[in-house]
């Protein structure tokens, strides 16, 4: 495994250079082309930046904490040196005029982006099968999905192409693919990281996070990209500092996440992880959150409503694909959007427009927002007693390619355990549990109170060394 610290030490000792590390990462990416991980690679810009860092190191200049470390970003982050497509035909030729704040912060510390990873178009999906560029294959089994929407980013880390990648998590889009591929996946507190320069999905739940091979690497990356940004008014005042784990944390195992519909092997891995937490000195107790069974219904009312608003800007006029044979403005809108959106994008726009319409706003959208408040209250009540909540990331391991594509409801049910934390704006991570008998990874989900990210990471780090 190529960890951040390993790469930094090799460069510092003179055993390697930033250019050599970038070239090696690009070579590994080429070796795994059959997995369809990357939408684009940017070797020219990456190697140019690597040479600049090597020159600075030679001359003794101060370099950042990630100097020479290669990484990749989900292709809904605006970056320079190539296209930003969001895996959609609408943006196939879009070259961003600026970079996302998270990318800028990483580059300021010397990290080098080698390319953009595949995703469900506009991040709508849970398998990366909705990409205009085809699905990404699971890191372990080519017949299985990578998960989504950040499937490419998860597989790039799981296959050790780069030590970390950036992703977005709206309802589980980092945690679920991390679980499916055996990587660490971090969704921070809502507002911990700026969303500026990232193609919007649902503005009240979108979070910028990362995938990494270890919790140490993930924590280092999150420390770099965290912080208030004047370009994103939803960012919180700087609060993140690394913390030491409590010697005896109280952890609640969510009963509703361990019932019917959860794969036996997934349930067994969660129970085993709970036992190891107990051995490590923590207290694990079963807790009940009955309202979680309504979270998916809330999510698929609120999120499509925000999607329908955010995607209105893609109309073929200002940027993106423009229909060539339109004869009037209505035709231009309809044809440009019809040609550029994938079926799942259209489905969510239709649902969102419906629940926001004058006859149904009170019946659906307003009720969902009220229920969301009840969900937040239920979490707050549990966090009065418990430091962390525990459960599976997904009810099953990675499913087969094509298995759920014709059944949207079945696909949505894969998010049942991740959307509650998203709706409440809580920090939540996927850590490695074990594997199925067939060798498919199973992730464990840990969730904490808002702004308790560092305590959450500390527990996960301790268990990483204990769990192996």
Using brief descriptors, characterize the structure shown.
468 residues; alpha/beta; Amidase signature (AS) enzymes
The biggest beta sheet reads: 11 strands, mixed
- The count of strands amounts to 11
Structural class given helices, strands, pairing?
A: alpha/beta
Enter the CATH topology name: Amidase signature (AS) enzymes
The main sheet orders its strands as 1-3-2-4-6-5-10-11-9-7-8
The rough form would be described as globular
Q: Please, what is the CATH homologous superfamily?
A: Amidase signature (AS) domain
Task: Give the C-alpha Rg.
Answer: 21 Å
Overall pLDDT score:
95
> At CATH's second level, what is the architecture?
Alpha-Beta Complex
Residue runs with pLDDT of under 50 for 5 or more positions: none
Q: Tally the helices: what do you get? A: 15
| Helical content band | 25-40%
Summed up, the domain count is 1
